[in-house]
Design goal:
Number of helices: 4
Radius of gyration: 15 Å
Amino acid sequence: MREWILPVVLAVGVVAGCTEAESGEAAPAPESSSADGSTEDGAPKVENPLDTSAYQQDPCSSLSSAQLQELALDQGKPSENDSAGPNCFWRNNEARSMASIAFVTAGNNGISDVYANRENNAVFEELPAIEGHPVVAYGSVKGEIERGYCTLAVGATDELFLSISVRVSRANIGQDDPCESAQRVAEMMIETMRSGQ
């Protein structure tokens, strides 16, 4: 049975994607700002920092009951592996779909760590920002998007990013773009966190 491996940013490297045996590693580069508001590695600055402190204490509250109903997901549970930071997984076992979030506190460079490791990821694509929060699809496993998986790095602050992963339902693989689904989930989470501030 395939298990989703939560994308992890450690102080010494990045491992991202979903796989049973494959993984990728890379070392983060130091961060410095340039005149255009991006970091040296090209990561955009977060225009609208998000206070996630309450949600780091209870990551499963990042999606409301109404949002879970809309997404057809069950109540969430934290993963046993929280080395990247506080996290939660939501599943629909019948449809074989899932979503997850990790508040990536390791590294303290925010989304810059993902940009610094772009050459080491099989997936790296900048996507439209969400309410001033830069967004990148990333992962270490080639072809995961075609298999219905997508992981986004969403800059919450310049020091912390949200790693949001989605697996579309088995029936929708090849029909729904998992990164569009992940963007919708990210929008919902940001909406929930903003309303809680």
